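Collaboration report, partner site 2.

Our partner group contributed sequences for two proteins of shared interest, and the home lab folded both. The records are reproduced in the order in which they were received, starting with the first partner submission.
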Amino acid sequence: MEIFRIGLDFDGVIANTPALKSIAAKETIGVDIPPEEMLAKNVIEKNFLTMDEYHALQQEVYFEHPQWHEQLKPMPDAQKSIQHLLEDGHTLFCITSRTPEAVSLARQWIEREGIPIEIYDMSGHPSKTSVVKDLDVDVFIDDDPQYLEPMVGVVEHLFLFSWSYNQAYDEGERIKRTGSWSDILSRIKKISKS
């Protein structure tokens, strides 16, 4: 079995932050936005919020009121799948575009949830692609195609975690779409045996 160095995005892959931002939008500004739509581009294009309102919501959840992270839940099956990958000998990294301040909250959340992986932000790096190069990542999973596209040709196995906000994206042949942690686990087992 081949052992991989696996990079995971935090928001929308490990942690269900789209659901948390949906709750925060309803409670703080009275706007009902389905979690599946909670990506800046979609929220703005569908006139749920303006760009300024979306950034204010992010500030609320990520910085101004860290107690929101107490309501943050892992993606279904994320914890047990991550544990299984670690038990199989893979090395896992969380690689996020969050600011260093927001990474601090993510670290606290990961520790509280008992997810034993290190978080890397983009400090000192121009992009996630630069971070995955430095960490020599073989597999990377993100919910935002803008981060995956530059990794084509850099990371051997790329997966787009499916949400309705990224359904219009044509992932082509180099990026594989996945819809759940059980699917991710199955696919990594399959490619590690090939």
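Second partner submission, folded after the first:
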Amino acid sequence: MTEDWAAVASAINQRAAELGFRQRDLIERSHVSKAVVGEITRNVVQRRRNTRTLEALSLALDWHPQHLTAVLHGRMPPSVGEPIYRFDDEDIPARLAAIEHQLHAINDRLDEIASINDRRDDMRSISRQLEELNANVAAVVRDRRSGRERTSR
């Protein structure tokens, strides 16, 4: 499995800039040594790190604990609130929890879409009512004009 430490460094630096963190802030929040934070953020030493190091950095950056591990391995980072699971095929309960979380997210999105469709249907109904109202107003105006023309003759 290839590891992309440059992507990890980029993700950390970009997120720290977004949050207005300096390296010292990241060290204090993560409790990771200055040397290790410097090596990772500058991508100067590429070696296997303890999973807890990446988790601590992820949490310090207000991300899901497995965010940087996912970046390292070229996977889509999990969102905050998603369950924590091992990235192997042996952890069936964790994989099912992740799938369940994704299903809940899909269900929420489908509810939003249904709500949008309901509003669209309401707008179509209102549009039809306005068309009928306009037709009725036009008929009344025509009737009044034709009534005036008859009386003026």
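Feedback sent to the partner group on the second submission included the following. The radius of gyration is 30 Å. The chain has a mean pLDDT of 87.
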